[in-house]
Amino acid sequence: MQQQLQTEEVGDAASKIAVFPKVRVALLAKQRSFQQQPGLVADGRDMGSVVFPKAKYKVYLTASADIRGKRRYKQLIEKGINANLRTVITDIEQRDERDKNRSTSPLIIPNDSYVIDSSNLEINDVVDLVVNFLNN
What we know:
By secondary structure, the protein is mainly alpha-helical. The protein has seven helices and two strands, in the order H-H-H-H-E-H-H-E-H. Helix 5 crosses helix 6.
């Protein structure tokens, strides 16, 4: 199921559906209901700004569209999915634009989040930064 949720089609569809305020409002209570002790790791473009704005820890991961596109392209190819790098990058840029400009819950960087630009980092470097942030 997790692999299916991480497909390009699901991500793109989620971004297109997310522009409808009624959908976002309907999902908000359900999303918040997942929060339980000792805590929750929530992944999403408005988790720290809208869904869990009072979260103790917020990490905002970012990277350039080119880098994210190359990473996504590599994932697709490794899964045996035929892909075009330029198309993958363009899709990411379009999704970013759509998410930043939607009227409800636009993509923003919460002021109280720890921002990590992973453009020039390996995954282990990112994990180390997050762990250090949480431990301090």
